[in-house]
Write a structure and sequence with these properties.
Elements: H1 2-13, H2 30-55
Length: about 100
């Protein structure tokens, strides 16, 4: 273990660039490639997802029909916040309580 640490320390403490470089030869330009992928692929993808969610999304849907299944929404002890029946990120339009949706 100590020998591995000493090798790592010698590599970082060495001031001579005598080893192979991460950007030498045919592997150079990697940062430029990822920068272009970010600008041309990732950012437009975020924009398309935003438009799909907030412009074309139907925000006034009725919640699905409530079925009181015995194996779902069981509370063996109350949650430590609020009234003990609501989840931490409770949404009254989407998250049902054990007896159904809130009005």
């Amino acid at each position: 273990m100590a020998s591995k640490l000493s090798v790592v320390f010698r590599r970082f403490a060495s001031s001579s660039p005598a080893g192979p470089s991460a950007v030498a030869g045919e592997h150079s330009g990697g940062a430029q490639k990822w920068k272009m992928l970010t600008v041309l692929v990732a950012l437009p993808s975020v924009g398309v997802a935003y438009v799909n969610a907030f412009v074309f999304g139907d925000h006034h849907e009725e919640p699905p029909e409530f079925h009181k299944y015995e194996h779902l929404r069981t509370r063996t002890k109350p949650f430590p916040w609020g009234d003990g029946n609501h989840t931490l990120f409770h949404n009254k339009h989407a998250t049902p309580l054990p007896d159904g949706y809130e009005e």
